[in-house]
Amino acid sequence: MRTLISILVANALLFSGAGFTADIDAQKIADLKQQLADITEELDDLNSRVDKTERHTALDRIQITGDFRTKAHSLHFQNVTWNPAMKVNFSDFGAKAMSGAFGDPSSATSPLGKMMAANPELAAAFQSGMLQGVMPYVLAPQTQQDIDNDILYTTRLRLDLKAKVWDNVSFAGRLSMYKNWGDSTGVKVFDSWNSFTMDGTSSGNTSGDWLRVERAYFDWKNINGSNTYLSIGRRPSTYGPPSHYRENEMRGGTPSGHLVNFNFDGATLGYNLGEITGIEGQVVRFCYGQGFESQFGNGEMFGDIITKDTHLGGFNIDVINDGTNFLQMTLFGAKDINDGFKGTMAFPTQLAGIFAPTMYQDMQKFENFNFVTRVQPSGVIGDMFLGGLGYARETENDYKWFASIGWTRAEPNGNAGLFGGMLNDAVFEAELNSTGTEIIMVPKETVDTDTKDGYGVYIGMQMPAPGGKFGLEYNYGSEYWTPFTQAQDDPIGSKLATRGHVAEAYYIFDINPRMFIKLAGLYYDFEYTGSGTPVGAPQKVDDVIAGTAYSMLPVVDTAYDVNASLTVNF
Length: 570
Hints:
By secondary structure, the chain is α+β, with helices and mostly antiparallel strands. It is 18% helix and 44% strand. The protein has ten helices and 24 strands. The strands form three sheets. Strands 1-4-5-7-8-9-10-11-12-15-16-19-20-21-22-24 form a 16-stranded antiparallel barrel. It has a four-stranded mixed sheet with strand order 3-2-17-18. Strands 6-13-14 form a three-stranded antiparallel sheet, with no helix packed on it. β11 (310-321) and β12 (325-338) form a beta hairpin. This is DUF3373 domain-containing protein.
């Protein structure tokens, strides 16, 4: 471009000089040369700017932003109790034993004889007629201890990707890394459901020094000039309102953070209803997703499938969103929930001693070894429904407060796996293994199939304070409270999934508009076991500690997390 204009200017000067040479003196020629030099300099600057714009258009199609957070925790757990047992149908066991199905009880080599010899207390209780009906079969002696992890460091890196595809089409994604310092193994020992790494929780689980795709989706807005939009991909379903306040960031996800903080793949069909009603920010959305794929890539052989795909669907409505007031309604269901997800874990030695005695013989020789295994569910356990209503208000002087109430309903179908059915314990029956040499306990059904309703409340406030802001939050979950918030990255476990009480206080110091320090403390008071999972019947924590109730996994009574973090947005 610069070369073309320079040639045109030079030609003009040449023709001008040919026609009027006699009238142009040396000074005028010098002036024209200076003007040409000035024009050339301006063209160079213009050319440089045009080149940058063209280069940006051609190469910088994706805008990359993100945040980096390093955090130090001091974690403390009180009255951690392990009191494992399974409910066994001893009437069925007695009938089979009397019929000779398990061999001669007086023979030391028969399956029944070997079982009685290995469990003399069980044999004595059975022979005295103390074991009738469905009763707990204790698997290991109760243990109890306090646990302190004085310092735990974590690092979280999130890269946000944005691209404008067309006037009304855009792409967005987020890559996340979340790790403990000094740990990139990718799996944890299975001592709680919070330690289980799976598709829906990978972004909130400290799994290693690699980036995972937390989000990847496109938005197609104003379809055919209407108020309708469509979005498909890995959904923005984490850190939704009002949970974003404690993160000190803008609204991070579409659904209520009180009910959903869980990664899943799906689609959203939305309509900007405010254009019709005149209510600012009013949007109605129908959301669909899949939480589990049962056939392709599963561990079952060929077509021998006993699980089902888990599908989710429902409505998420922003009733009001005017910058000051925010009112949101959520209602959705999950059909054909299985007793787990595809995932990985390190199998605890203690559980191997109970469920894998042959393997346990070798594992005792290597006490510091755990074998890593890929886990899959064993069957469909029922359906779930969730609903909630949340309100938040932000004033002009930067005061914020919110209140949210949530409801969950579990509808068990009576099926059960090793750790139970839907909010229900499994009833085990004794059977011979495939070789007929050992008696094993097999989960057959749940204790009942009653519908289980739970509720949760979540309230909080945030106010300006010297150097930043101060916040207080409280949440409570009932016995059967079961939201989908397992991807929340609290090390003790998702605070919003807690069956019990959680109180949190924090102070945020703003270093600059893109950098802040947060000091926080969380106190958990668990009332029931199994927070964050629909599998197994919740037990009163006090009863487990007293030894009158049982739990396959360790139970925490109270816990607290004192932490400090530094976050940089870029």
